[in-house]
Amino acid sequence: MRPEQGRPTRGGTDRESDGADAAGEVIPIHTGADVSRVRRVATAAMATIGASKIETTRMVTAASELARNTLEHGGGGEMRIAIVGRMSKRKVEMTFIDQGPGIPDIHRALTDGYSTGGGLGLGLSGAKRLCKEFEIKSAPGEGTIVKVASWTERP
Amino acid sequence: MTHYLEPSRIPIFQIGDCLLLTIQVDLEDRMIMTLKDDLAERIAKSHAKGVLIDISALDVVDSFIGRMLANISAIARILDASTVIVGMRPAVAITLVELGMSLQGVRTALDVDRGMELIRRDTSEEAGRLHEA
Amino acid sequence: MPDSSGSNLPGLLSRYQDRILTDWIAAQSDVGVLRADLMREAEIRRQSRSFLTHLIAATKNGLNFDIESDQWQDVRDMLTEVTNYRVDHGFTPTETATFIMALKQPIFECLRDQFKDDPNTLVNEAWSATVLLDKLGLYTNDIYLRGREDIIQRQQQEMLELSTPVVQLWDRIVALPLIGTLDSSRAQIVMENLLEAVVESKAEIVIIDITGVPTVDTLVAQHLLKTAAAAKLMGAECVISGIRPQIAQTIVHLGVELPQVATKADLQSAFAHALKRTGVTFSSR
Predict the structure, then answer these.
(1) Is residue A11 part of a domain?
(2) Which residues are within 8 A (CB) of C250 and not within 5 positions of it... i.e. 6 or more apart?
(3) d(CA A35, CA A64)
(4) Both ends of chain B: CA-CA distance in Å?
(5) Domains in chain B, ordered, with CATH?
(6) Per the domain annotation, does A137 fall within a domain?
(7) From the CA of B47, how many Å to the nearest CA of chain A?
(8) What secondary structure, in 3-state letters, does chain C show?
(9) Which residue in A71, A130, A142, C284 has the fewest CB atoms around it within 10 Å?
(10) What would the pLDDT profile of C197-212 be if each residue is shown by its tens digit?
(11) CATH number reported for the structural domain that contains residue A57 in this entry
(12) Residue A49: which domain range?
């Protein structure tokens, strides 16, 4: 069995582990500093699978957008990150979960320029463009779950 | 040349009539908000003609940071200073484009020297125009 | 006599080795994989004997169906060698796999003679032989595929490295002559190399010359646009040169606009434009 599979997830309280090991972690998102932490952990995970500079930047930027969404629109929540798959098929998977108001019209929320938070409305649609896999589940009053994944094309 | 250093504050240096700030660390949202306020005040006080923001150490610029950089340059423009963002990394530039941000109205240069050149050219052009008038 | 794993196969293989070998070669001929046109008969005989010897060695301590285990190391090495040899000599992967599977017939015949009066054992042993030889036969297919994949990957890598040179034309001016079709992954690499070159050479103007690009579709146009936009964010300007008339038509037809990019007919005028932009002037004496 691979070391990063099937390990129990640790709570996000031990800040010492920051970035050193990004597999199977839960990062709470409640402040702006947590958004930075999400970026650091995502960077470490992409390094673990041997991603290139641009692959890492894309994924970390997407993580930053999604973490900010969780914080600003979801009223806070958490990010789960894990490395899944075998050998050259390994990928970094991140799931952003909040119990906020939810998104009434996902299709519209994924359109460029749609914004409720006073921004440019690039958060969701931008993150979708930057990741290789993107999945979203949300309903009014039921919170939002966004799951993204990326892998490296490097041999 | 003056500067001040405080925890979680980005130092602003003055070189001639240019303000230079180098972003060395991962930007936390709070820091960039403080920076916006600090910078506006410094431009007004120093009558600086140019602002150089060196982001060569930044490996992530998301839409929020991008928007803040655009905001800073818009504020500076109103205070009659032109802003040049210098040293953006290739991976950051590609990602910003893919994100759908073009940072319209923001000027860019490869490094601090080139940015300084750009600002000098601007101010001398302006001086030239004044002279003609 | 049954071995520790309870199978009679290992014993039978070594006892009837000579007979099995002769019959196997005959069987190869029967099913049409004995390609004397591709390979000398002495070599076919050598490979067959060598495989049988290794098979006996690998099973002498009992039958183990996990052909990835250490016990099967020599057989796997041998199969790798045989498969590669046969690929080089023009055998199809099916022919190579059939070469191994043709061994079933002589083994079944030996089993039939041995267990005429014991149908249960006969069926069990025949089943064991089938499972084992199918695995080994299919293993040659894996080797074949792995070899092909290695070749494809190496060629792709070589092509990508070969095809994106960045040339410094003047202080602050670099050019990237593109040749051949741009697919998505190549366009991606071109973009990354180009932007890295901008940083390294501190280039203010980048000329992308597409004289050697046969077609420009929406995807290529978008990549060019993206590159230009990214270069602009870094403080450099993109110029595209070598746009042939029909490509200009395609670009307009596709509805792609190139607002951030200066376009020039050829490299010469792009270079002249770049010199002017960077403030270089020449005087004639």
Answers:
(1) no
(2) C215, C216, C217
(3) 6
(4) 33
(5) 12-132 (3.30.750.24)
(6) yes
(7) 30
(8) CCCCCCCCHHHHHHHCHHHHHHHHHHHHHHCCCCCCCCCCHHHHHHHHHHHHHHHHHHHCCCCCCCCCCHHHHHHHHHHHHHHHHHHHCCCCHHHHHHHHHCCHHHHHHHHHHHCCCCHHHHHHHHHHHHHHHHHHHHHHHHHHHHHHHHHHHHHHHHHHHHCCCCEEEECCEEEEEEECCCCHHHHHHHHHHHHHHHHHHCCCEEEEEEEECCCCCHHHHHHHHHHHHHHHHHCCEEEEECCCHHHHHHHHHHCCCCCCCEEECCHHHHHHHHHHHCCCCCCCC
(9) C284
(10) 999 999 999 999 999 8
(11) 3.30.565.10
(12) 21-151
Give the Cβ contact number of residue A132 at 10 Å: 15
Q: Which two tokens stand for residue B122?
A: 């601007």
- Residues of chain C above pLDDT 70, percent: 95
All structural domains of chain C: 9-159 (1.10.490), 167-277 (3.30.750.24)
CA–CA gap between residue C198 and residue C204 (Å, rounded): 7
Instruction: Compute the nearest-CA separation of A55 from chain B (Å).
Output: 8
Q: Do A65 and B99 touch (CB under 8 A)?
A: yes
In a domain, A13, yes or no: no
A54/B63 Cβ within 8 A = no
Residue A1 placed within a domain: no
Using alpha carbons, select from B85, B110, B86 the residue that is nearest to residue C202.
Answer: B110
What's the confidence (pLDDT) of residue A155? 66
- B74 to chain A, any CB pair closer than 8 A? The answer is no
How far apart CA B78 and CA A111 sit, in angstroms, is 32
Q: State the Cα angle at C277 between C246 and B56, rounded to 5°.
A: 100
Of C191, C233, C235, the CB nearest to B114: C235
CB A46 within 8 A of CB A60: yes
How far apart CA C225 and CA B10 sit, in angstroms, is 34
* Chain-centroid distance, C-alpha B89: 15
Contact state of A155 with C157 under an 8 Å Cβ cutoff? yes
Residues of chain A falling short of pLDDT 70: 1-23, 87-88, 112-122, 155
